[in-house]
Design goal:
Layout lengths: L8 E6 L5 E7 L2 H6 L2 E8 L17 E4 L5 E4 L9 E11 L5 E3 L6 E4 L4 E3 L2 E6 L1 H10 L3 E2 L2 E2 L15 E5 L19 E6 H4 L4 E9 L7 E8 L3 H7 L4 E2 L7 E4 L9 E5 L3 E6 L3 E2 L4 E4 L30
Parallel strand pairs: 16-20
Antiparallel strand pairs: 1-2, 2-5, 3-4, 3-6, 6-7, 6-8, 9-19, 10-14, 11-21, 12-13, 13-20, 14-22, 15-16, 15-17, 18-19
InterPro entries: FN3_sf (IPR036116), Ig-like_fold (IPR013783), PHYHIP/PHYHIPL (IPR042868), PHYIP/PHIPL_C (IPR045545)
Keywords: Glycoprotein
Organism: Dissostichus mawsoni
Length: 317
Amino acid sequence: MDAPLATPCNIQICEVTCDSFRIMWDITPEDSARSTHFFIDLSRKESRDPNRFKHRDVPTKLVAKAVPLPMAVRGHWFLSPRTEYCVAVQTAVRQPDGDYLVSEWSQVVEFCTGGRLLKFSVFYRNQHPEYFDFVRGECGGLMRPALKDISGSHGSPVNGKLHGVFFSCSTEFDTGLPPKDSPYGPQRFLIPAGHLLNPNISLYFADFYCMYTAYHYVVLVLAPVGSEGDTFCRSRLPMLDLASNPFLTYTAPQRPGEEPLFCHASDVILEVIFTEPVSLDQGHVEQIRGHHQLMSLTTANAKKDPSCKVCNISVGR
């Protein structure tokens, strides 16, 4: 009769991303040599009881051939960004009759996936040709701050109070470039990211909302340190660390000659408000090559979905 397998212990999770992680545990040399498969029990964290699984939207058990540890677990079809999970493991030996000799389940450990950050190099602003003609002819080439509308969360401190120039930075996953379409106009102003996001800029979180859709919007404010916009936001909004936050990051060059690294979250749509005038001379205007979508698809004065359980704190509580 085969000797029993030892229960896996000292479970460790590392290299966690939005849709992958690596897992390892203490295993004896004898069990490592015998094991043919690993069983991984993975579930969203639904209960405060660390020994109870409520499998929902994920497989109850992942079966993998035994490999050297740490083992990579990848799968966007069962791992979601910024989500808490519980995991336990078994080691197993496949028998000649097809059955398995298995260890006891390990203790349950918890971890949280990250959000996928994509590199980008420019902020951009989509508008109609008439807007850019007006900026050149009447404003000396300066895009001047405008009052934030009342879209998004009803209680956001910036709605109807903060002035800014609105930008986007989202990119297409496969190209790393801004989207080819626009709901705001057929022309696009592009400005190098470093002009708006650098160590002399304060970054603030302003809103998180959706409009009866599966995806969510995040509103961020960029304000030059010491500016009027910075003063307004400092007492009203949470400040984010430029180098470490889930939405928009700036990483300083590590060596001489290197460029800064700019990243944005890919699982939300970012709306960025820059609180100072921006000169057209700092970038360039180009024609958008894709389709100009209907203005009804914009977020102008759009109302937040009050029933969403993700972006409304009180719903379902």
